[in-house]
Amino acid sequence: MKHSPALAGLIDALRTLPGVGPKSAQRMAFHLLQDGRAGANALAASLTAALAAVRRCSRCRMLTEAELCSICESRRDADLLCVVESPADVVAIESSGSFRGRYFVLMGHLSPLDGIGPEQIGIQELEALLAQPGLRELILATNPTVEGEATAHFLSEVARRHGIAATRIAHGVPIGGELEYVDGGTLAHALAGRQAIS
Amino acid sequence: MKHSPALAGLIDALRTLPGVGPKSAQRMAFHLLQDGRAGANALAASLTAALAAVRRCSRCRMLTEAELCSICESRRDADLLCVVESPADVVAIESSGSFRGRYFVLMGHLSPLDGIGPEQIGIQELEALLAQPGLRELILATNPTVEGEATAHFLSEVARRHGIAATRIAHGVPIGGELEYVDGGTLAHALAGRQAIS
């Protein structure tokens, strides 16, 4: 059946959200207009407010409301810089509590076919950080996908030109995982990256 | 890590959507503020527009932008009235193309513990429809849950008082399903509802 124009427009707009297909979008739209009108008003208001307030950190390109994000503002080890693809990756690494350095958010990965080259992933800002004194190591934490690996390789070359050591995060069997269910590529990485037991 | 206030507000608002947990909400918020700014503006605008324009059909309580919804406006069999819990149920039955009657949308089900009684599911509007001449059968298509069954039972009593026949949609093995994977309650319904092969 055909939805009314305003309802169809809302469903189309909700479908642009990641992970939301036509069925989920319809369910969300009915929920918002049926039981969740207060929530819908709050969503529209907070979306407009966030669009106006949130921008990129001038140093690391993380999403923030200030000139510098809370991580760049806080006292962090200045000798380690971790490059990630998205703000969600920063959140994931921060929640692991295992990193005390700074970040640089590419907001994507190299993808020449989509017109995403070094400019689009902020190579100028990154080179400015690489030129700063005190930086010792560039940790490449892009995703272990074809594009992520290519981006990591490209950035390692850039780091080499600046005389900065570039490292790649380890790939292997996830903690709690069972070898039986791990794919071949991951197992190959796990074997190749084996370390002496101290 | 702590999100900035506008970002945290957006994530909280997105979590009110059905099927969206904290991880999905964060992913949606980052997407909206990162790659999807045009989509985010469209979402905020269409949400505001839909909240202002969409209301309930004065006859069947379906979501609509006009006084009557498109189904009530169209020429439908006036002798059949199908009672469903939500607008999504109307869409599902319409897409099956197997019903030519009219609908009545309860916008919920009886749930005394949540303060949802006959008033809240529109019993007055339904009784007005039951009193109209020409109506022959009330089809109860509420969900096969405890609340849905209780609501169907209550509405069948109401229909009986108006001298209207009340029927319940059939429950049984879904088409394409395998008996092996169907739960016991459904199989019991399928056996009890068996029909002679003509």
Per-chain topology:
2 copies of one chain form a homodimer.
Chain A: H1 5-15, H2 22-34, H3 37-53, E1 55-56, E2 63-64, H4 70-73, E3 80-84, H5 87-96, E4 102-105, H6 123-131, E5 137-140, H7 146-161, E6 165-168, H8 184-192
Parallel strand pairs in A: 3-4, 3-5, 5-6
Antiparallel strand pairs in A: 1-2
Helix pairs in contact in A: 1-2, 2-3
Structure, explained:
The structure is a homodimer of 198-residue chains. With 198 residues, the first copy, chain A, is of the alpha/beta class. Chain A is 45% helix and 11% strand. Chain A contains 8 helices and 6 strands; from the N terminus they run αααββαβαβαβαβα. Chain A has a 4-stranded parallel sheet with strand order 4-3-5-6. In chain A, β5, α7 and β6 form a beta-alpha-beta unit. In chain A, α1 (5-15) packs across α2 (22-34) and α2 crosses α3 (37-53). Chain A is globular. The termini of chain A are far apart. Chains A and B meet through α1, α2, α3, β2 and α5 of A and α1, α2, α3, β2 and α5 of B.
